[in-house]
Every structure is written in structure tokens, then in C-alpha cells.
Amino acid sequence: MDANAAKLIGAGLATISLAGVGIGIGQIFGSYVSAAIRNPAAAPKQFGNVLLGFALTEAVALYALVIAMLLLFVF
Amino acid sequence: MSHGASPLEQFLIRRIFELHIGGLDISFTNSSLFMIIAVVGITAFLNLSMRKSALVPGRWQSMAELSYEFIANVVRENAGSEGMAYFPFVFTLFMFILFCNLLGLIPFSFTVTSHIAVTFALAAVVFLGVTAIGFAKHGVKFLQLFVPSGVPIALLPLIVLIELISYLTRPISLSVRLFANMMAGHTMLKVFAGFVVALGIWLGWAPLAFIVALTALELGIAILQAYVFAILSCIYLHDAMHPHH
To answer: Is residue B188 within 8 angstroms of chain A, CB to CB?
Structure first.
């Protein structure tokens, strides 16, 4: 196989990890909403934790982006 | 950005004036310029807003007080009251990253934190500092951090190895998180800006509206990432001061 084609396929494959990140972000906000419905009084205090979890999960998606960029532009 | 330019062109480092000392290239670049603008901006913001400090704060003073209180709470909650000794460092870190991120959102400006060299330097300072604090406070006992209590003996070698690796990857994850967020966001904005030009005057409005929404998201991300960097530094500080699980 052409090395360039393999590079493009690899970069495309790197984006599969976004599936996991999608599940993760959905999980975070889904859990937050269901917890907020059970106990609305405690919800605002936990929003900082939600944002932290969101940022940490989103960063995983960006590691995939970094890998795709490395494959495309560095090798 | 001129038409047809690469979305990655905005991250190009240009030398403003050349300076070579002993084979080292320490030229003053646009990156250095924006770091200086950020530092001057922080100093001006905090000094000018607190100059006429009143008991009932005005708008600027309450902004300065809010940012101070915000980070003071983060340090107190995550690193404990003895962690407040490191509050000036965390506050400096937060304000520097925040200002660099926000300055990068201004069109035609340069985002300092979109370069791994900058963010890794910041993360390395946090990592080395936290490790040094841990060893200075607890000596060899700091290594208890890698030995969680209540783990079966048979599993211990594996757990210690995993803990050690997760500890050593902290500076990498800390720096890549910030750099990748900034780089991805700004690249995405430029890609959509390219769509506006490509679709022309009739269809170009759709991506333009999307850019406005994205800019709002990026504003949030800029603040959120500075917060995440500060909060994780505090959590690492807490680990260094209380290595017993």
C-alpha cells in the first residue's frame, strides 16, 4: 500500500476514539441531569465538578486529534 | 488571514527581531510579544482595579476580587488550608493561562498556549515543583503515594507500576490538554471561516452564524481550561502534601 494512503487511513482510524468520548460526555451530563432532578437543591454545587469532568473527557478527544495531526503532518 | 491560507498558519511563530547568543536562538518572537502583553495586562488589570479600593467595590474592583476569591476557593477546597501557602503560584498560573487564552481569541492575535512548548514548560514547572514539595515535606515517605493501602500483596507490584506511570504522565496530559484544546478550537474557527469564503454571499451566512456560536464556546473553553489547569495543579499539590491514600 502507498505510504500516503496508509497515513490517511491511520488518521481516519484515530477518530474512532471519539465514540468513547461521546459516550463519556453523554454519561457526565446525563448523570448530572438525573441527579439534579432527584435533588435540585444540591445541583448548583456540583456543576463545577461537571465542567471539570467535561473538560477532562473532552481532552481525550483532543488526544485523538493530536494523534491524527501527528500522523498527517509529522510522519 | 488572507484567502486560501492554511488554517494552521495562525500558529506560525515569527521573529520580530533576531537575537542569537552562543548558538542559541533567543529571538523576540510574536509568542514572546503576546506573553509580555498578557503579563502587562494582568498587572494593569489587578493594579488599576485595586487602586481606588473601596469597601463597596466598583465594577473593576469586584472583577479583581472575584478572580482572587475564585482561585482562593479552588485552592482551599482542593489542596486544603496548608495548600494556601501555594496560592500565589496557582493564581499566577491561572491568570497567565487565562489571559493568554483570552488574548488569542482576538482576531489576528497569537495564542501563546496553542504551542506545546509553552504549555509543557508550565506543566513541567508544576510537576517538578510538586515532586520537590512532596520530597521536601515527607522525604522518602512521599513514595507511599505509589502504594495504595488495602491492596493485596499479589497485586501490589502491578498497582505500583500503574501508579508510577500515571504519575509520570501527568505533565504530558496536563500540557497536551491545554495545547490541544487551544489548537483545535482555533483551527476549527479558521476552517469554518474558510467555508464562509468558499460558499460565497448567499450560503456563507450559515457557517458565519456557526462561527459566532463557536466563538462563544471558545470563550467558555478558554476560561474552563485555565480553571482545569489550576484545579489539577491543586489536586497534585494535595497529593504531594498528603501522600497517604
So the answer is: no
Per-residue pLDDT at B245: 60
Is the Cβ of B223 closer than 8 Å to some Cβ of chain A? no
Q: In this structure, what DSSP letter does residue B151 have?
A: -
pTM of the complete model beyond 0.90 = no
**DSSP code at position B85:** G
User: Cα–Cα distance between A66 and A60 in angstroms, integer?
Assistant: 10
Report the candidate in A74, A71, A73 with the shortest Cα–Cα distance to residue A6.
Answer: A71
Environment class of A48 (CB within 10 Å of its CB; exposed 0-12, middle 13-18, buried 19+): middle
Q: Cβ–Cβ of A56/B225 closer than 8 Å?
A: no
B126 has a pLDDT exceeding 90: yes
Residue A49: DSSP 8-state: H
Say how far apart CA A58 and CA B218 lie, in whole Å. Answer: 13
User: Considering CB atoms only, which of A55, A65, A66 is closest to B228?
Assistant: A55
> Domains plus CATH for chain A?
3-74 (1.20.20.10)
Q: How many A×B Cβ pairs under 8 Å?
A: 31
CB contact under 8 A, B184 and A65: yes
pLDDT digit string, tens, across residues B205-215: 889 999 999 99
> pLDDT tens, B38-66?
999 999 999 998 888 788 888 889 999 99
ipTM of the complex: 0.73
